[in-house]
Design brief:
By secondary structure, this protein is α+β, with helices and mostly antiparallel strands. It has one domain. It contains four helices and seven strands, in the order αβαββββαββα. The strands form two sheets. Strands 3-2-7-6 form a four-stranded antiparallel beta sheet. It has a three-stranded mixed beta sheet with strand order 1-4-5. Strand 2 and strand 3 form a beta hairpin. 13% of the residues are buried.
Amino acid sequence: MTYNPNFDLDLQFGLIYEKKLERLLREKSKIEIKTERDIWASTGNIAIEIRFKGNPSGLAKTKADWWFHILTLDGEMVTMVCFPVDKLKQIIKELLKKKLVRKVMGGDNNDSEILLVPIDRLLSKNFFNNNGVVHNSG
């Protein structure tokens, strides 16, 4: 559905997604929740773990349907982003191909392989077509 300044049509569109979110929260969807401390605000990146001590972990291993990433400042939640895990994996794959994501070691004893993902790239509309499918532009 495209944007329409007609209030009734816009309301219908909003209600469709309210119902979808309500279904997501009421159903037994599996979710993964990660919390990002203040540093994202200065770097513009979020950190997504993919390996721990050489073994798949985090995004690479999750069995969740949805990935929630909470962003905090000074101990307070300021916002969150969420993705269907399969779409997030597709986006990350495209960003890696384009060398727009950095891999670093971090965590305790530098045991975690972490992707530093630019938030603006992660949320770029250039990765989606009208059906929400990730594609190669951007």
